[in-house]
User: Fold this.
Amino acid sequence: MPSNCWDKVVPHYLDFWVPRLIPYHEDLVRKSVPRPGERVLVTAAGPGAELLPISRAMEGRGELVATDTSEAMIEHAKQLIGPAEIKMPIELRVADASDTLGRRWDLIMNAFGMWQLEDRIGTLSAWRDALADGGRVALLVWGPPDPDGPFELVGSSLQDLEPALGEHTRRRELAARESMATMLEQAGLQLVRHAVVRNVMEFGAAEGFFKALFSGCSYVQFAETLGRERIEALAQAFYARLSPPSPRTPLSFAPAAAIAIAERAG
Ligand SMILES: C[S@@+](CC[C@H](N)C(=O)[O-])C[C@H]1O[C@@H](n2cnc3c(N)ncnc32)[C@H](O)[C@@H]1O
Assistant:
């Protein structure tokens, strides 16, 4: 997926997703505990919503750097942190998640960006190499899956109608403790903490959820591949799985997200 896909979706991402992700960012901060004075690298930071709770936890002291491959996302992060009264300088740079900027870090974080990375193990290995003594990596990813959750119902509809693409929806299974531990191990990291958190997410109507999903880059590629008619068929298959089965069904659910904290192995 070209990273500039994210350049195009910034307004949708800000409207639909950022407000719903903030409680998860706060969970990530609670579990990974960025401390005053630490050197913290936030990768795939997007528009930077997680920087607010991170900087609060750091009490304005230390080194906070955020990177993302999307110029538009970084541009937005600059606008966000200006008026947000963050009491510490934050360095914002366009860079790949694997780029540790030639520095040592006490904490390297990634919120909802792992499955965007083509070489996850290579990136995790680069993070391991850049950790200071006692340093940690903190990840936040969607999953494990809830069989009846709206994300999964779109996934099962996709699997039924477009089996060639359905594989994508299995990403959430990688959030389970064992899968995370295995992935981290392959990069020379050891899982020291795994927690599943949930926050309530509401959409006034299922069609709003479907639209939001297909305006993010994880799904936008499907929209391009399938075209309008097949996407409409997918939407109808999703609505048919709801109770009541209608595009107007309101959705209230609490999707699981896994937080993994890892240290250098050995
Ligand atoms: C779902 S957004 C998450 C943004 C933010 N962390 C949050 O929680 O709102 C995924 C982000 O990953 C970024 N991204 C995709 N591939 C990347 C890569 N190889 N290196 C760094 N960032 C990447 C995208 O530009 C996008 O901003």
Q: What stands out?
A: Residues 3, 6, 21, 43-46, 49-50, 68-70, 73, 96-97, 111-113, 116-117 surround S-adenosylmethionine (CB under 6 Å). The mean pLDDT is 92. The chain is about 40% helix and 25% strand.
